[in-house]
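hiii, so i know i said id send this last week but things got crazy w the move. better late than never?? heres the sequnce for the chain we talked about at the cafe, plus the structure i predicted for it. fair warning i was half asleep when i ran it
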Amino acid sequence: MRTTQEQDELRSAVRAVLGRRPGDAAWGPLTRQIGVAGLAVPEEYGGAGCGAVEVGVVMEELGRELSPVPYLGSAVLAVQTLLASGDGAACARLLPGLASGTAVGTLAWAEGGSWDPSDVRARAAPGPAGRWRITGTKEHVLDDGRADVLLAAARTAAGVSLFEVPADGTGVERVPAVPMDATRAQARVVLAGAEGRLLGVEGDGERVLSHVLDLACTALAAEQVGAAARCLELTLGHAGERIQFGRPIGSFQAVKHRLADAYVLVESARSVALGAAFAAAAGSPELSRRAAAAKSACSEAYATVAGEMIQLHGGIGITWEHDAHRYFKRAHGSARLFGPPPWHRARLAGLLGLPAACPPPPRRPPAPTAS
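okay and structure toks below
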């Protein structure tokens, strides 16, 4: 599996923008000049009509720079939730703004540290004028502080459903979180009878969220590969410059072995991430398996390579003077995002009809249905 010339040109363009405009300042050029926010949006809604491979290319470059732009929450989670809901009216109303980057979206989904769609416990009850009243607390909501479009999952009498909630409406409290990884903004969203508009079909939320979970894991795996590759590049450069006992530390056999092991991890992770992206682009029934494998493998590869980066840099690797600690924190934060590796391995085992090598986290009691 290889990327095309067009996809490689996209990579070069994104890397050039990120090199010139670090931090949040990159969002404007990325959206206006390259159109990254609309890559996965169909042309009828103002997007480019591309697929998961192009999204993966962008995510890999964002991972290299630990970019804080709201791409994952808006261009992946919010966009894919709207598309998977099948709600044409909502797509026509919301996707053009998300595709242009003039609006930022997010999905309020996780509860109690779980991204399992069946664990949604927030409740939605019918309200006046065809609206719904939603009550519950959502965690790990990406980029919520800048979100104009807030989508939320809640349980009705028909099952898990999806809703569009006014981001600054009555009954919506957005509390910024202080995660270990300060480069990825997250928030806790408390819904206290917040008004919501139903997206798609009532009770169809588990199907939609399961598909979005696969696409989110696929995108995040690409980001992890990009960050791990950057860790390896920085460590290789340091090993060639750092002199001990009159020679570069990279010339010592023990260091060579560790760098070689890190290279194998990065390239293996790249392969499994690409496998998931190509499966998503093709609409393959293998997507769930490949996404679970990619999230598990890429999380662990990135964490390992980031740890090696700190150790091989020595003392400076644990100081604020070097970026090593930022990559290390992102590695461990992203490993938990959308579910930790053991959960995805158990999910993969279930999809393959095998006994789980590691037991999944204990399940909570079934959520009460809305009255």
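btw Residues 137 and 190 are 4 Å apart (CA to CA). thought thatd interest u
miss u guys!!
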